[in-house]
Amino acid sequence: MSRSERKENAEQSTLRSEHEQNGVLVNPRAICNLCKRLYREPKILPCLHTFCSDCIAQLEPFSVSSRCPAVEAGDRPAVTVTVLCPDCDSEVDIPPSGPAGLSTDHLALDEVFLETLVTNGPLGCDLCGEGNAESRCEVCSVNLCEFCCQAHRRQKRTASHSIQGLDELKSRGRLCRPVLCSFHPGQELRLFCQPCDLPVCLECAATLHRDHRCCPAHDVIDRHGDRIRELVTARLRPRLERLEESLQKVEVSQEALQARVEATANEVRAFARGYASAVEAHCLSLLRHLEELRVQRRNQLHLQRAQLQQALLDVRGGVEFAERLLSCGSDAEILSAKGVTLRRLTSLAEGSYDPHPATVAPDDGSGICFMSREPAGEVEGYPVVGVINSNTVDVSKCTIEGEGLQRGREGQQGHFTLVCRDSAGEQVARGGDQVLVSVIHKEKKNCTVETTVVDNNDGSYGVSYTPIEPGTYSVWVCVKAQHVKGSPFILNVKRKFRHHSGTFHCCSFCSSGGAKEARCGCPGTMPGGFKGCGHNHKGHPGKPHWSCCGSTVEQSECLPQSVLAAVSPRGHLRTVEL
Question: Where does each Filamin repeat begin and end (predicted)?
Fold first, then answer.
C-alpha cells in the first residue's frame, strides 16, 4: 500500500468517526460536507468537490457576470454566477441553468445507495414513512414499501422506472447500478456522442443527437479513460508524491521548529532568571561598595578632623605662650625662655598642616555618583553595567612609580610619579588634587631640595627634584594634607659620579710602551726602575684594571681612595690607551 493510499484510508477512518449516527458508522463518502447528511442529487463542482444540489444553490454568490448579449429583443443575457467552494475556497462558475446544469456525481449516488443497503435494521419507506422498505427505485433513488412500490408502477410518470428488490441488491455484495438518462427515464446511457462529448441513451441518439456521431460507450472508454489515466499516472501521481513528501518535510520542520522554539524559550527563561539573579547580586555589591565608601570617607574626615584639632591645639598653645611671654615677661624672663620658645614656634611654623583653607580640602562626598551605563564586568557569567564612581582620591590606595623615590645622585635630576587612585584601586580620571612633596636631608635640616610637581590631568603627577648634596633624605608625599601609603620614604643620594681619568689596561708597561715613569693606581711594581705594574709581578691584580684607581670593573666610577696621592717632581706620566 502506497503512502497516499495509507493517508487516504486514515482520512476516511477519521471522517467515519465524525459521522457516527445512533451508534452506527456512516460512510463519509456518502455525506455532504455542507448539510452533514446523505447526498441528495449530488453535483460536481469544477474543482471536483461534490455537494448536494440544494446546498450549492444556497451558496452566497462571490461575483455575477453576463457572458453574452441578448440574441433577440426581450431575451435576457446569460448570467454566470461565481461561488467559492466550501472545501478549497476555489472560485467556481455555476452554469446559467443553476446547479442542475452541473454534472451529477454518480459515484456519490453509489455510496449513498451502498450505505442504505448495509445499514443495520429495517429500512423505512422514503415515500410514506411507514412500513419496511422492500424495493428501491433506481431512477428516483428512493426505498419503497410494497404498497408504494405498486403505486409507483401504476403512475404514468414512473411506470418505466427500474425497481430492484433490496434483498437481491444486498445479496450481490457489490454495486451494479446502471446510469440512467435524465431525459428518458428507464433508458441506460450506453452510447457516447463525440461532437457533444456526452454519454447518451438510444432515444437521445435517435432524436436529440440524430445528426451526431454516436458510438457505443465501451468502444471509446479506453481512449478517454487512457487520457485520464495518463494525466493521473504520468503527471499528477508523481506530483502528488512530491507534494506529500514536501508536506511531510514541512510537518517535520514544523515539529522541529516548535521543539527549537520551546528549547529556546526555556533558554531565554533560564537566562532571564540567571540575569535577574546577577543583576540583584550586582546591586547588592554596589550597595556594599557604597557603604564602604561612606565608612572610608567618614574615617578620613574623622582622621583629618583629629589632626586639624591637634594642630590647632598645638598652634594655639604656642601662640598663647609666646604672647603671654612677650606681654607679661621681663627682659630677663624673655631672654631665658627665648631658646625653647623659638624652637617650638619654628617647629609649629614648619608643620605639615597649614591652617590656610587652600591646603585643606575636606571630602563631602559630592564626587560620589552612579554611572548606570558604564560596563561593570561580569557577575555569575553575565555582563552587567552600572558602577559607583567615587571621583575622589583614596590616599591609602595611591601608589608611587619610578626608581627616583629610592635612590638618586648628587647634582642629577631624579623623577618619580604619583598615581592617585580611588577606593576601588582604579586610577582617577582627572587631576586637580592638592599634592605636596617635600625632600628633606635627614642630617642637615637646612639642606632643602626644590621639587616640581606636574599635574598630568589624568590622575597622575610627575615629581622631579635635584639634590645638591649626597646623603639620606626623607621624602614626604601628601595628598589633601594626608600622607600616602609608605610616606615618608627614604631616599639615598650618592655623591656625584666620578669618571675615570686613566685607561682600562692590562699593565702600565704594555699601555705606555715600556716607559719606566708610567704609574698605575694598582699596588703593582716592577723591578729595573719601573714605577708602574707589569704582568705577573708583585701587586698586579691579575686582570685588566683602571690605571687611575686600580678598579677591575670597567663600568664603574673612579674610586677616590685609589687615586695616586702624589707624583714625582718630574710629574706623572699618564698611561696611554691600549
Answer: 390-493
Q: Sorting pLDDT into bands at 50, 70 and 90, what band is 284? A: very high
Question: Do 464 and 503 share a domain, yes or no?
Answer: no
| pLDDT at residue 119, as a whole number | 62
pLDDT value for 10: 45
307, 341, 359 - which closes a domain: 359
The answer to whether position 8 is within a domain reads yes
Looking at residue 132, the DSSP 8-state letter turns out to be B
In one-letter notation, the amino acid at residue 152 is H
| pTM given for the model | 0.43
At position 99, the amino acid (one-letter code) is P
Which residue's C-alpha cell is 605636596? 436
Residue 249, SS3? helix
Convert the pLDDT of each residue in 233-273 to its tens digit: 888 889 889 999 999 999 999 999 999 999 999 999 999 99
Shared-domain flag, residues 346 and 228: yes
Based on its alpha-carbon atoms, the radius of gyration of the chain, rounded to whole angstroms, reads 61
Q: Which domain holds residue 549?
A: 499-578
- CATH number of the domain residue 12 falls in: 3.30.40.10
**Can you read off the three cell numbers belonging to residue 496?**
656625584
Domain boundary among 439, 461, 494: 494
